[in-house]
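User: Show me a protein chain along with its predicted structure.
Assistant: Here is one chain, sequence first, then structure tokens.
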Amino acid sequence: MIFMRPWAFWRDANHHFFNHWGSYVTLVFLTNLVVSYIAVPVFTWLTSALMRWQNVPYVSYTNIGSLVIKHPLAILGLVVILLAIVTLIYWQFAYLLLGITNIRHGRPQTALSMLGDTVRSIAGASPSTFLFFIGYFVIIMPFGSELFTTPLLNKAKIPAFIVSYLMANNVFAVLLGIFYVGAAYLGIRLIAVLPLMMIDHYHSRDAIRLSWQRTRGHFWNYFLKIIVTLVMVSIAVAIIYAILYVGQVLFDKTGVALVAATINLFLMEVITEFIVCYATVIFMMVILSSHDTHHPTPSMLFSFREPAKTRLRTRVLIISGLTVISAALVGFNLIYLNGLAMSKPLTIAHRGVDNGNGVQNTIPAMVKTSREKPDYVEMDIRMTKDHQFVVMHDGNLKNLAGINRKVSSMTLKQLTNVTVTENGYQAKIPSFNQYLNSAIQHHQKLLIEIKTGGADTKDLPERFYREFGSRILANHEQVHTLSYTIMNRLKQEHPDLFVSYIMPYNLTFPHTRANAYTMEATTLNDTFIEQADQEHKKVYAWDIDDVTTMDQMMFIGANGVITNNLHLIQQEIKDNTDHPSYANLLLTFMNDLSLETQTQ
């Protein structure tokens, strides 16, 4: 077996890629185009149609048991759709592997013949092959997604709030680190499995055994190939973006700033798409390098040269196609550069604080934060033992008060006598009545999260509305909750009340009575927001604490952002919407043009 040094591999792979870039770009670009603009919309429509047919308002971990019992056909349909998605991902990977192999080894095939080969590969695959394929991508996703991505695999993300929670706990942080190290090791030791299964049609068991043999003693060789590729791609992107940005800063001082910005944005889109194709091909070549056992010298891995006429025809075709497609973006670019393509979302202070300026969910912090004029202050309420409402996020007082007692086991009077400490500040736990009255007094609107716990009564929504409904409506407060039952009953019985349904994960688009959806930002995308807009519903994104994520939320059209860094986010919105320079608009667009978002 032939093993090339990482730098030599990268040099030769680059030489071969740029000699045949037209063929490679055609292969990757058209494959992504089919998946992004045909397959993804079809699966989205099928899922939505299935949910409407079966009268399923939403799919989440909270209602899986109910769906199994009450909507077995919906579960069956979702399983079939999931299998179809896995099959498509398998096809995409197989199609790219086969196409790149053919280009490297001088076996040109038509798209139809390659499609036939991959379909036969899928038809001959055993169930264990698909199970291994799913498991393999679960293992390599934390690493491979930087170089190879697909709109379907982009769903397979761990929400940021879960990662943050795990990293805050030392034990979980260590376990997560061990998982990533183990995943990297297994992913590389099994790097030859997919080519063996997809190209040579080995059974998954035999492919695993053979890959383990081939990679024995060569872990660092493959690891460094991936690292070198990732570093070089990152450097190239940084240099290109820096040149475009600095150039636009200079052009902003001239009378042709808009023309220059339109050209620079056009170049940015084309170059980024090219880099996506390049990274995908090099990543696939790393995988295929474990499969090449029939070549006597390393140079023969990249020895094929297309005829000059074929190369010229392919390049002309690609340049023409990319020019037509990219030219269609010029209209959008002009709209974007005039500030019309970015939303100006509402700012919502998470738990009533800004960058640790007080104790979460307390009146002094809310009053201080209200001086910065957020559109809403988000806060949390829970039901107490005596069926009153107290302002508290956690179900236990241990973190904030050092008392290992549940909120549901204490009365309102007991709780409001407790002092909580955070960020160097102290304050008393307030009742919701006190907090609401103080917010009204300071002309601060609230986004009230109703949390559930052990003390909840069956008539919690009615109790809540009976005591606070008139004030909430009069002062235009809003409500959101993770509980579908509470949201649905509030909207059913009090349709004038603005209620948002909180969703930690964008699995399928829900169809509910909610006025809005509060979505965790990791899996939120423009498709979800467009669907919400069609149903005249708002979308609030949480937690948005840095300018890069803020730019992405503005770009995809979020209606509101819940943040722990209110001042920073307010300033970013102002910079992006109040007569920003074209250079800053390019910078904002750069934040959205990551390798991962290119194929969404």
